[in-house]
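BACKBONE GEOMETRY TOKENS:
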Amino acid sequence: MIHFIRPYTKQAILSLVLLLGMVVADLLIPRLTQQVIDQGIATQDMGMIATTSLLMLGAAVLSALFSIGNTVLSVRVGMGVSADLRSAIVRKVQTFSFGNLDRLQTGELLVRATSDVNMVQMTVQMALRILTRAPLWMLGSVVMLIVTSPRLALLMLALLPVVLGMIWFFLARARPLFSSVQQKLDRLNQVLQENLAGVRVVKAFVRDEHENARFDRANDDLMAENVRVMQLIASLIPTMLFLVNVAVVGVVWFGGQLSIASDFTLGEIVASTNYMTFSLFPLMMLGAMTGPISAADASAGRIWEVLDSTAEVQSRQQVKALPRVEGRVAFEDVFFSYNHGCDEPVLQGVNLVAEPGETVAILGATGSGKSSLVHLIPRFYDVERGRVTLDGVDVRDLPLGDLRARVGIALQEAVLFSGTVRDNIRYGRPDATEEAVITAAKAAQTHDFITAFPDGYDTWIGQRGVNLSGGQKQRIAIARALLVQPKVLILDDSTSAVDVETEARIQAALEQLMAGRTSFVIAQRISTVLTADKIIVLDRGQVVAEGTHAELITSSPIYREIYESQLGNGASANG
């Protein structure tokens, strides 16, 4: 984590300097106590007592001021590091391809950006306070104890290996437990996220008891793991405290014998007791920090698992710029699977060409690879074999940002963001004029229902568009894709939630806007693709038919079966 602490080096160093001053002030007090007992109380010298008392008060005030300054600076460093870590995680996630996000679930990423970062933040603050103060305090106490009584210092040195061994034992036991706690927390967040996101489905199917039980299992697992950790930590503190008390008893016992033999003063016994406590108490503090340190260690590993991840889809070092995109898209013997070739390919030997300005419709059963096919164009995933080209250039040889800026896409699951309708439509083109926004909205058949809202285009959309219907969200997503004026437009079953009449109006409006653009349309209703320049039928990841409607109705049994199931025998298209 040094990389994230470096921007706060000056504050961290000043914090440590203040900490050193605080330790020095604390270590002066036992010495002054010895002086006031041996040179003031024993001789009944009130002047010495008053002077030394004032010095002790001054040391206490300095210690308090240094402590306040150290706390303020350490909190600033810790908060700064945690803010930078969260930003780094979010920025890293933004570079991930769909493949990375398929493996790192949303719930896990949320825990790592919140709970895990908080653990690291706490440890950074402790490192500038307790974790540094404790060894300095211990080292200074040992030195002062040796100066006060070398013989009594041997007692502390005998206990030191025992205490350090005990701390190491607890650290070794605690780390895997804290790692398990964070994994249980991942699971709890995943279940909670699914419950909240799917609460309407849960209510619709009366599965609230089932979901409550599922959450209770995850919650109980987390509680049980936390109890195991706390039981381990709870046994450490009393053990450490017992050893400190044993050391104090040893000082009183041996110091008392030396005092009776007139070889030790009462002030030296008090000072030695304080220094013995000061030397072992930091170890007890470190023991108490065993749990948080272990938790932060496990959390840091989980954070770096994200930060060290490499995006599966990256721009190559040598990329080619396309000054003017015509929009010719070609699939050349493309093979693709989601698990790096370990599973059966989703696409097998796909060859397909979409000429500039053509509308290509893609049909096929669920799981035939339709969405997978179009996701390869903007490089949401990369092919395993073969290549996808834009104007004859492999898309892997194009700058990733430039490629995606030229491809507009509206997905079946329309994702909207908290904000106004206007902001959502111009999400991909923030500088779009009001006229351009309205033109795109009209083409997507959204203008009428938007203007029906009291606030029109300033209507606030709730989280994930909760206050809109599925069809309304899809139409806003289509408007968003149209507004960027892409050379390649992908509509991935983006009208599945609208009625047939609205879909027909959308298609009629799109025909004009899609002119001059290469368009890929995935649709469940065959009625929406009858006028496409080219219709592709996919079956189990392979192109089994290609042509116009007139060609396929006579040459492709699969296409004819789809057509007749929806439009044959005088039936109307109903999806």
Summary: Residues 7-307 form a domain with the ABC transporter transmembrane region fold fold (CATH 1.20.1560.10). The radius of gyration is 35 Å.
